[in-house]
Amino acid sequence: MPTIAKDFSGQTVLTTFEMTPGTAQDLMDELRDAYDKFIRHQPGFIGAGLHMNDAQTRIANYSQWRDRKDFQAMLRTPEMRERNRRLATLCSRFEPVMYEVMDAF
Predict the structure, then answer these.
(1) Residue 8: strand pairing partners
(2) The pTM is what?
(3) Residue of 16, 15, 9, 24 lying closest to 68 (CA atoms)
């Protein structure tokens, strides 16, 4: 489970997905499957959380990795590249962005 702390030295990634309410649950199912069967087993994975807004038009994914290179290596695998192609068919756009924790309250 991810823990947000100012002294976290790994890589934090926030990915936002935009979709219609009609595809929100399908996208959430695909993300759950990706974490359950693949992502959480990758080197450097620490934890993640999935969040959906009430209107079912956005999903936010918070993940933590030991190192930036671990996250990038996971993205480059053939399995994740194929999964990302499927995810792209269920949403209008998605964007993973790497962040550094600056503070936590």
Answers:
(1) none
(2) 0.93
(3) 9
